[in-house]
Specification:
The protein is mainly beta. It contains no helices and 11 strands. About 35% of the residues are buried.
Length: about 120
């Protein structure tokens, strides 16, 4: 059974940092790509960044230079390091796993498996 569990969310002041974790199980990262998404109240879910098993990454323009993604295959975990956080980064953050070896930034509708999400709130 595929499972994704996010953790690390919380309340942080603008300019601060947070690191989110996505612990996965039930599949081999070699055969999937993993992406982070976020959804703010009243808005559609959007892709933030992603990573393949070979370490290829892709980022949304809104987070380039502030967010980074990495993976620890020994721990079956993908991380989202966020710095210089802004109030507009406030959202529920999800990780999603998609079977295949194509570009890792996929549309939310094409994601195979989702985690339950972790809330990030950035105060001004």
């Amino acid at each position: 059974e595929v499972q994704l569990v996010e953790s690390g969310g919380g309340l942080v002041q603008a300019g601060g940092s947070l690191r989110l974790s996505c612990a996965y199980s039930g599949f081999t990262f070699d055969d999937y790509t993993i992406a982070w998404f976020r959804q703010a109240p009243g808005k559609e879910r959007e892709g933030v960044l992603c990573i393949t098993n070979e370490g290829v990454t892709d980022y949304a323009d809104s987070v380039k230079g502030r967010f980074t993604v990495s993976s620890d295959n020994a721990k079956n975990t993908v991380y989202l390091q966020m710095k210089a956080l802004k109030p507009e980064d406030t959202a529920l953050y999800y990780c999603g796993a998609t079977p295949g070896w194509g570009p890792c930034m996929v549309r939310p509708g094409n994601v195979g498996y989702w985690g339950q999400g972790t809330q990030v709130t950035v105060s001004s």
